[in-house]
Batch of 2 targets.
Target 1
Amino acid sequence: MKTINAKNSEYRELNRLIRDCNDNCTLKDCLGQRFIGAGMSDRNITVEGTPGNALGAYLNNANITVKGNAQDAVGDTMNDGRITIYGNIGDAAGYAMRGGEIYIKGNAGYRAGIHMKEYKDKVPVIVIGGKAGSFLGEYQAGGIIIVLGIGISDSQIVGNFPCTGMHGGKMLLRSDCKNVIFPKNVNTVHLSGEQLNGLSVYISEFCKLFGYDFKTIINSDFTLITPDSKNPYKQMYVMN
Amino acid sequence: MKKEGQIRIPSGCAISAVISKDGERMSGESITNSMRPMHDRSNGLGGGFAAYGIYPEHKDEYAFHIFFDDNVTRETCERFLKEGFEMVKAELIPTRKIPEITDEPLIWRYFLSPLKSVLASMQIDEKEFVVRTVMKINTEIKGAYVFSSGKNMGAFKAVGFPEDVGRFYRLEDYGAYMWTAHGRYPTNTPGWWGGAHPFALLDYSVVHNGEISSYDANRRFIEMFGYKCNLQTDTEVITYIADYLLRRQELTLEETACVIAAPFWDTIRRKPEEEMKKLSYLRNVFSGLLITGPFSIILGFKGGLMALNDRLKLRSMVVGEKGDKVFIASEEAAIRTMQPELDRIYSPAGGQPVIVKVKEGIVL
C-alpha cells in the first residue's frame, strides 16, 4: 500500500501519481482535487480528506473508498467498479452511470442517479444509507437506486419530485412513502422486507460495509417504484 | 477590445463566504486561500471580494471605490462628486504589483458625506441620493465606474483569478467581520474589471454562480424604477433587485427570497391558507422579479448575509458552522481550507434561504 500526499497537488499530477502506482494507494490530505481515479481500472484507492467534483468519473473497475464526505458528480458516467463513501455526498451522484456500484453511508444531495442506464448485464447500483435530495432518479433509464433512510426522523427520506422523467430501472425506498408525491408515469408497490428478492443483496452488502444489522434494516416497509410501461411518455413530445 | 455592456457572449463560477457572529475582525488571507481549491471553476477573467467592517474610522461616510480609465476622467468625476458630497478623504486603493494582474485601471477610494443642502433641495434621503449618483456616474461619465458605495464596507475586484486578486488588493491588511468572494467564468460577457463580482450598491453586495435565464424580464422590470443595467451581466440585476425589494419595498429577507426564488404554484397550493395567501401575493405582485435558471448567490448587507440557491438547485452550495463562524461555499473543500474541523456541514435545499446575522448588541 503506497501513501500519496495530496496536499497542494494539482489534479493532473495527483492522477499521474495514482496511475504510476500499480498497486493500492491511499491519498492523504486531499482537498478539492477533481477527477480522482477517472477512468481507472484494477486498483484500490483510499481517499482521506475531501475529494473534489467528478470523483471516479468514467471509473472502469477500480475501487474507491472515501473516509469522509464527497462533493458533486461522484461516479459520473461510471462503467464498472465500486465507490464507497463513509460520509455524505453532493449533488448528481452517479450521473449517467452505466455500471458498477456506489454505496453511501450518509445522505445524498439533489439529483442522485440522474439518467442512470442499463444494458443486458450492465446494471448500475446506488445505495444511499441516509436520505436523498430532490429529483432523485431524474430521467432514470435503468439501474437500481436504493434509499434506506437510516436514522432519518423526518417523515420523508426523499426530497421533492422523485422519479421525474423515469422510464427504466428500479427505485426502492425504505419507507411507506405516504407523504411522497410521485409522477403519474410510475407505478408504486408496497413491499415488506421479505419480498425484496434480488434487491436485498445490495442492502446486505451495504450493511456489511458500514456495520449495520441486516435483519434490523430489512424489518421495515419498502416502496418499489418502476415506470408504468415501456414507453411512459408516448405522445408527450411527438405523435409516436 | 469591446467592454462589458457592448457585447454578449453566450457561467461556471465559484463563491465563498465567512461571517463571525461575534463580530470578530478577520483578515482577508483565509477567504483568499479558500478560492484556491476551486481554481478550475474560474477562468482568470474575474475575481473579487466584499469586506464588511473594514473602515471603522470612516464608518459614517459612504466609501466609493471607483475605476478610472485616466486622470482626466477622474478629475471630471471628482468635480461631479463635489457638487453633492463633502469629500472627507480621497486616496488610491493600495495594491501590490504582481505578474498575474495586469492592465489595471486607476483605482481610487473616496469617503463621502452627502451635502445636507443638496438632499433638502432634491427632497430625497441620502441613500437614494447615493444610488442616483452611482447610476449617473456609471451611465454618463465614460471611463469611470463606481463598483462599491456602502458604509464601512468595500468591494475589491479585478480581472484575474480570485486568489491573485486577493493578493493584488493586499486583503491581508484589512479586518472584516464578514467576507464574500467570487471567482468568475464569464459566459455572456467578455470579462472586464467592472464586470467582476461582487456587484455592490450601498451596503448590498452580491456574488453569484450561475446564469439566470430571466435576465431581460428582470432588467425591464427593475429599469422602471431608475436602475440602469449597464453591463448586461445577470449579477448586476440581482444586486438592484435586492436594493429595490429590501430598501425601497421594505420586504424582509425571507420575503425577498420568496420573490426571487418563489416556490412553484404546486408547492404554494399545498401550504396552509395564511402562508398560501402571502406566497401568492408576493409571486403575483413581483412576478417580474422571479429569477429563473441556475444560481447560487450570497447577498451581503450590513451585519449579515443571505445565501440562496435557485429553487431547482442547479448549482451547488455548502454551509459549514464552527463556533460563532459560518462558512458558505460552492464546494466543501473551500470551507475545509478556512476551517478543517466543523461542528456541522450541510447543503441547503433549493430556494431555502440561509440567513446569518451578527449577534444583536454587537457594535459594527
Target 2
Amino acid sequence: MSLEGKVALVTGASRGIGREIAKVLADRGAVVIGTATSEAGAEGITEALSSKGGYGIVMNVSDAESIDAGLKAVTEKSGAPVILVNNAGITRDNLLMRMKEDDWDAVINTNLSSIYRTSKAVLRGMAKARWGRIINISSVVAGMGNPGQVNYCAAKAGVEGMTRSLAKEMANRGITVNSVAPGFIDTDMTKKLDDSQRDAMMSVIPAGRLGEPEEVAAVVAFLASQEAAYVTGETINVNGGMFMG
Amino acid sequence: MSTVEERVKKIVCEQLGVKESEVQNTSSFVEDLGADSLDTVELVMALEEEFETEIPDEEAEKLASVQDAIDYIVAHT
C-alpha cells in the first residue's frame, strides 16, 4: 500500500494520534506536512519527518487566513496535497448546565468548522488531480454520546455527517472522504483521566485495554491508499469493541 | 495567439468532454453540454487558470452559457 510521492497534510501532528498518522504515512512514502499551533510543535514535527522528506508548519485550523497562508506555502514548496487528514482537535468538557458559550464555540470551531476550511482549501488540487483522500478523525462519542461533552460530541457527529455529504459530492472525481472514530486511545487526552474514570472506562471496553495511536494510524493509512478507492462516506470504528453503531 | 472565444471553447471541450462541433456560443453548459453542478465549478476553476483571473462566486453562478463566459472574460481581463 505505497503512497510514494503523494503529498499529505496532517493537522495536529505534533503529538498523540496525529503524530503517529504522520509517521505511518511517511513510512509508506508520502511527503508528509504536519501542522502544529506552535513553533516548537512544528520544529518537533520537522525533526520526526525530515529523514523522509516531510516537515512541520505552524497552522491554526480555527483561522481561515492561517490555513490559506499555510496551504500556499506548502503548495509552493511541495505541490498541492492530495491526502488530507483532519486530526486537530480540542476538548472543553463541562456539563451543559455549566458550559460557557465560549467553550461551545471553541470546540465547534476547532473540531468541525476547521474541516470545512481545510477541506475546501485542498479540494481544488484534488479535483484537478482526479485523485484525493480526505480522512477525518471523529470519536466513539459521536455515536455514543458522553456526559460532559455535548460540544465535542456535537462537533464529531457533525464531522461524520459532513463526511457522508462530501463523499457523495466528490465521488466521481476519484476523491474519497471517510472518518475514523477512535475509542479510548492511550494519548495525552486520556492521560488526564483519574483512576476511577479509567476503571469505569475499562469495564466498557471488551478488548480490556486502551488502544494504541498506531492502531488508529494503520486504519488511516489504509483509507489513504489506492486499495481503499471504493470506500467512501464511511466511518470506521477503532475502539476495541466498545461501540458498534 | 488564439482569441478569447477560441480559448474558452477549448477549455469547455476539455472540461466537459464534448466535441468542438457541439459547442456553440449559445450553448448552455448544463442544458446543452450536459454539465452537472460540480462540472460547472471545475469549469470556472479552469477559466480562472487559463485567463489568470479570479471569478467571484456570485459572478461564477451567472455564467450559464459559452457566451456568458466569453463576455465575462472580455470584460474582466
